[in-house]
Amino acid sequence: MLVKYAIDLLCLIHINMYFIDYNFSHRIHHLSFGDAAYGRIHPLDGDEHITPNRLHIYQYFIKVVPTKVNTRFSNVDTYQFAVTERNRALDHNTGSHGTPGIFLKYDFSPIKVYVEQKYKPLWKFLIRLCGIVGGIFACTGILNSLFGAILDIICCRFKLGNTNRVRNQTLQLPIAV
After folding, report:
1. Which one of 52, 122, 124, 170 has the fewest CB atoms closer than 10 angstroms to its CB?
2. If DSSP codes are grouped into helix, strand and coil, which group holds residue 51?
3. Cα–Cα distance list, 169 to 12, 162, 174 (Å)
4. Which regions span the lipid bilayer (predicted)?
């Protein structure tokens, strides 16, 4: 089999077979740019395309962004990338023209992304925790006062719980003769 690899100034990689019978089904096990960094996702890892057609075009448009990652454990200059995929079967009888193959078109971004992991000190966490606990106590105290006032208004207005037994009794005063 004859394989043609073409790399030009427009950052284009083209894999094409000159044999008519070739099937362009493929699997991308791993594709990355730069050094490995913890937590980085490679969107094309494990990507698999199977086609029964012998004339098929696969295009991958890759946008590569330089990235600097600073964490507590590593300091890495690497690259991230985003991918847009397009594939279609070629049939010259229906007007779908093109060159069959696998095309990787990539473009480098002029903007660099900085990823930095920062930790706040323990004393700031404790101060925030005390503020949250104090706020909870203050809110529950306000709610307790509010519900107590509402309960007093309801009980006093409708005189719930107060029984006057004096009304039913007659007043007897001692009489001196």
Report:
1. 170
2. coil
3. 108, 16, 16
4. 125-151
